[in-house]
Fold this sequence. Notes:
This protein is an alpha+beta fold. 17% of the residues lie in helices and 43% in strands. The mean pLDDT is 92.
Amino acid sequence: MVNPKLGKSPDGKDMHYSVGAIIKIDGKYLMVNRLKKPLGYACPAGHVDENETPEEALLREVKEETGLTITKHKLLFEDYSHGFCSKGVGVHYWYVYECEAEGKITLELDGAKSIGLYSKEEILSLNLEKPSWEDWFKRLKII
């Protein structure tokens, strides 16, 4: 396994770089219920590996977590997030993309309990990954 790209946050803490993919299919959002920290429902996401660009990480993570192939993507925003990941680092610098994808949705058994498509109304009842995805869905007016 390749190590995540490591940097320093503005306050001097160790920081990983991460990507997230907001994928909407037939009016619903693709969400993964995570088995590893940070727990909760989130869009497909993961670390940018050492010597990898955010775009390369986006394509790889979506394929690994969902089986889908990204056909189009647009960077929505970049943001810092605090909260420990499975690798024990508490600060992440995120690249969050809006994506179009094709293929058959499959569940990555190693990292998720479930995967599915959820409407805005259904997302409101999910235990979203905090603080990242809950905050971002509010910012983007998804919830």
